[in-house]
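Researcher: Re-running this chain for the archive, since the previous output was lost when a drive failed. Same request as before.
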Amino acid sequence: MRRLHQTLGLTALLLAGAWLGGCAPYGSLCAAKMDCEGGNDADLDACVVDSEATEDVAYTYDCGDFWEDLVACTDERSRCGNNNFGPGDDCDAEENRLADCINKRR
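Model: Regenerated structure tokens:
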């Protein structure tokens, strides 16, 4: 469960880009993460692929609404601080609801 939370937390940062536009759905948020934390084009591509995969998991387990809530929260609250990009603890409730949903359906 802890690993799922870590994966969801990192991925949530990357996923919010779906509503931000760009050629890749998660490109904008991943680019902001790379700008803050450092990274190259390969890191950016990996971020987008990981985000899309996590989205697929959420929808596979019929947890899409929880996923969308987490992405919206992440999009609204993510910021760069100390070379770390994300919403901090601001989206923990949304992350926990998504993790619980997925874990109940596994």
